[in-house]
Specification:
mainly beta
């Protein structure tokens, strides 16, 4: 009965009852040029879903890209984010190697009704704004968000 309930909440294609902590391969994307691919030094990720709560940890380092990086960076999340108002799901990031578009730090925001964890710049006296895609860098981070039921 528990498996049926968990499958109803978590969805059947991603239900894994024997292993609660699951490896996941994070993928970096560009919001404008979705055909852009990145050449990775490493892509390490873990995801833990408990009901509709999703925790994602990742370490992504990329060395180059193939395509036009004309948009903003985001990490493709493993589960679809719940429908919400604004951006209530903010995670922490440890960025390295690349220059910020502005501000003094970066965060990750889970964007509602998508699979996107967008990278945003923020800081004192700076209006929060998307981080432009860059050719090389590293992002280590964690975000917790509410996923959608029965995806």
């Amino acid at each position: 009965m528990y498996e049926q309930l968990a499958e109803g909440v978590n969805g059947d294609i991603r239900a894994n009852f024997s292993e609660p902590n699951v490896r996941w391969t994070p993928i970096l994307r560009d919001t404008v040029d979705t055909a852009t691919t990145f050449t990775y030094a490493h892509q390490i990720g873990w995801v833990y879903r408990n009901g509709i709560f999703v925790d994602v940890w990742f370490d992504i380092q990329w060395l180059a890209n193939v395509g036009a990086i004309t948009g903003n960076m985001y990490v493709e999340l493993p589960y679809k984010v719940a429908v919400t108002e604004q951006k209530p799901f903010v995670g922490v990031l440890q960025p390295s190697i690349f220059a910020y578009k502005g501000g003094t730090e970066c965060v990750i925001n889970a964007i509602d009704n998508t699979y996107r964890g967008e990278i945003w710049n923020c800081g004192s006296g700076f209006p929060t704004a998307n981080q432009s895609s860059v050719a090389a860098g590293q992002l280590i981070g964690h975000i917790r968000y509410i996923g959608q039921q029965d995806e």
